[in-house]
Amino acid sequence: MSTKLDLGKIFFLILFLTLSVMTVMAGTIKGSITDKQTREPLTGATVQIVGTTQGAIADMDGNYSLNVTNGIYTLSIKYIGYKDIVVNNVKSGKADVVLNFELESDAQALGEVSVVARKNLEGERALQMERRKATLAIENIGSKEMSIKGISNVEEGVKKITGISIADAGQLIVRGLGDRYSTTTLNGLPIASPNPDNKLIPLDLFPSSTIQNITVSKVYNAEAFADYSGAHIDISTKENIAEDFFSISFNTGGKFNTLGKDRYQMNRNGSLFKTSGVDQAALDMPLSDFDNYVKTGNIFDTSFAVKKKSTLPDFNGNLGFGKNISIDSQTLSILASVSAGNGYQNMDNAFYKTLEATGNVQDNFSYDSYAQELKLAALGYIGYTLHRHDRIGYTFFYTRNATDTYQRREGTDAEDHELTGSNNITHIYTLQNHQLNGLHNFGEQDRWELTWGGSYSKTGSEEPDRRQVMYIKNNDGTLGLFKLNRQETMRYFGSLDEKEWNGNLALRWKWNENNFLKLGFNYKNKSRDYKATRFYYNLNKINPTVTDIYDTDGFLNQENIADGNVTVQRVMQPKDSYRAGNEIYSGYLLTDFYPVPSLLVNLGVRYEISKQWVDYATDGGDWYAERRNLDKNDFFPTLNLKYTINDANSIRFSASRTVTRPSFIEMAPFLYQESYGSAQIRGNDELQNGYNYNFDLRYERFGKNGDMISLTGYFKYLDSPIERIQALQGGATLHSFRNADNGMAAGVEVECRKQLIKDLRLGANLSYMYTNVKLPEGGAYTNKERPLQGASPILANADLTYSPRFGEERQLNLALLYNLQGSRIHAVGVSNLGDIKQQTLHTLNFSAGYDLNKHFSLKLQVNDLLNRNVIFKQEVPSTGTEVEVERYKKGTDFEIGFSYKL
Predict the structure, then answer these.
(1) Which of 1.10.10.10, 2.60.40.1120, 2.60.120.10, 3.50.50.100 is the CATH number of 21-113?
(2) Model pTM?
(3) What is residue 745's predicted lDDT score, i.e. its pLDDT?
(4) CA–CA separation, 487 and 465 (whole Å)
(5) Which of 48, 156, 207, 745 has most Cβ atoms within 10 angstroms of its Cβ?
C-alpha cells in the first residue's frame, strides 16, 4: 500500500514539476529583422541574449523566434555590415513578445552627411525581392546561390535560367533563338565579343568569384540597345563592400578519365601564359624575299613533335580584398579579386563520320584528344560617395582563357585513303574592360536623378600556330607522309581584335513617389580587325620511314628547309583579312506610371541611327578594296504592363519591336575561312536587317520562405530573319546567308521554388517551345522548312538544396542539380541528307560545402554523375533510317577545396 502511495506521490511530483517547468518555459520572443532603408529581410542576422550562448538566426524572410523562460533580458541584434542594436529590459511572460528590428548600415552615419546604403544583390532572397518589384519580367541568379550549387562561371549560371541552353562553341540559345538574337552587357554597358562567328562574348570568361549576380530579361526595355529578341544578359561584377575583408580559396580535382592518365602534347614554347608566334619579319617582307628568308633560320618557335606526359590534377585559386576608407564624411570603397586555374580533359575512342545521300559513309574517323586549359581573371573596383545619394565608380575587368588541344585521328576519307592525323589547336580569348559611371540626385525630395557611364573594352581572339601533319597507310602497312595536294602539313595563324566604346546619359524626373519620366542617350562605336596567315609544307622531295607519328624532328626540321628538301609556302591573301565597324547613336523616352494603384505601365520608344560597314577583298582583289555599308534608322516601341492582384500575385504583359543585324562577315561577299578545315563562308551583300515582334504574358506568385511560381507564354514573329544556307560549289558545301521570308518561335515556361521542410528547398523550371523558319529558295538544304538550328523543343532544370545551420557560424550546404536538354539540330542537312541532330542529354551534378566557422569553409563537387555520351545522329531520307555520325564523352569530374576569409 505504501509502495503504491509512494509511487503516486512521485508521479504527482514529476507531473507538478513538469507543468511548472513548462509554465516557466512558456515565453517566446519573436519578430523580424530588416534593412532600415530598403526594408529587405536580413537573412542570417542574429538575436542573442546578452551574457548567454542562447540565440536565434533570422530565416529567409528575416523572421526569428527565441524560446525563453519568464524573465527580463537584454538582447543583442547583429548582422555583418550593420550597426548592432542592444535592447534592454525585454520582459518575457506567458504571452509571445513580438519585437521587429530595423538595422542601419555602418556606412549610413559617417559624420554630418549621411550615406545611403546600396543593396547587396548576391543572395537568393534579395534577388527575388528585386525580381518581385521590377518593372520588367526578369530572372536572376546571385553569387551566393552559384556558390551553393557549385556553379563556377557565368555560362554555367545562365544554363539554370528558364529556356536557355548552350550549343557548340559556347553559342547561347534562348527560347530557340540563336546567338544573334541576344545581347550581353557588363554592369549595364555593352561588351565586345572576341569570337568572329558569335555575337556574344563567351560567357565562361567570367568566373563566379568576380560576379555579384546575373540578370536575364527576355522582354525589351527602351533603355537598352534594340538588337535582341532572345535575352538581355547583364553580368554585374562585385562592388558592394559591407565590411573590410581578405579572402583566399584553393581547389583541386580532375576528371576520372583523365587524372593520372597519359596525355599527349605537341611541342610548345613555354606555358599557356605565353602566346606562340612567328618571326614578324617573315610576315612583313614580300613573298619573293620570304622564300629565301625562311631557309636562313627557323621562323617558328615550335615544332611538330609530340611528347607523352602524365596528367596532373586541376588547380584553381582566388584572392579577394575589400576595404572601406572614411574620408571626411564620405567613403572610398576598394575591391580587388584575382583568380587563376588550369584543367585537363582527355577524350578517348571518340568518332565522327560523314555520309552521302544513299547513307554510305564517306569520311569515317576515330580520335583521341587531349586538352589543357588556363583561365585567368582580375577585377578591380573603386567607388566614392559624394553626397547622400551620389556616387561615382570605376571598374576594371581582365580575363584570359587559353586552351591547347592535341588530337590524334585515324580513319578513311571519301577517297578511301587510310589516314592518320596529328593535329594541334591553341585558342586564346582575352578581354580588357574599363568602366566609369556615376549617379547624382538633386532637386526637392531628390526628384531628379542623373546617371551616366562610359566604357572601353578590348577583346582578342587568337589561334596561334594551329598545326597539322597527315600520314597515309601504304600498301605494305607502313606509314608515309600524305602529299595529295601539298596542303596536308601546315600551320595557321589567325587573330581578331575588337575595340568598343560605349557611353550613356540619362535624366529621370519623378512627379511623385512611384511615377517618373526618363530621357536618355546612348552611343556605341565598335571596330574589328581580322587577319590570317597560312604556311603550307611541300614534302614531295622527302620520303621518310615513319615508325612513330609523334617523332617528326627527323624530317620536319630546319636542315631540310635550308637544303630545299622541304619548301614552306606563305599564304597571305587579301581575302583572309577584313576590317569592320558599327556606330550607333540612339535616344529614348520612357515612363513608369500607375493609372490605378494596382497597374504599372512602362511605355517607351527608342530611335537608333546605325551605320555598319565592312572593308574586304574579293577573290583575287586588292587589300580592303571593297566596302559594304548597311545604314538604317529605326524606331523601336515597347510596352510593359504589371498588374498587381495582391501582395503575392501579379500578371505581366510585354510587347515590343526589335532588330537583328547581320554580323560583319555575313554582310560582305568575300570568301572567309576562320581556320584550316573549318567551313568556308561567303557573305551576302544584299543581306538586310531582320525585325522581330515580341509578345510575352507571365503570371507570378511569391509566397513565404522564398517560395514562388511563375508561368509564361510567349510568341515571336520574325520578319525577314537571317538564316545560314548551304550551297554547293565545286562539289564542296559553301555556307552563306540570306533573309528568309519569315519565322516564328512560341512556347511555355514554368518555374517554381519551394521550401519542402526547414532548410530543404526545391527549384525547378521547364520550357516547351515550338520554332519554325521558311528558308529562301536557292539553297542546297534538304528541308525547305524546319525548326530553328540549335533549338531544343524541351529544356528542364531541377535542383534540391539542403542548408542547415549549426549555431551562428557553422552551416552545411548540399545541392543536387539536374539538367535536361532535348534533341536539337546541330547541322542542317544538305544534298538530300537529313539534319544532324544532337540527341537528348541528361546531366546530374552534386555540390557540398561546409562552413567550419566564420573564417574557414570546405567544398566538394562532382559534375556529370551520369557520365553520358554526347551523341549525334543524321537522318537518311532515301533509306528512312537514322545513322549515328558522332559520339564522344567528356567524363565525370570532381573538385575539393577550402577557403579562408578574414
Answers:
(1) 2.60.40.1120
(2) 0.84
(3) 93
(4) 15
(5) 745
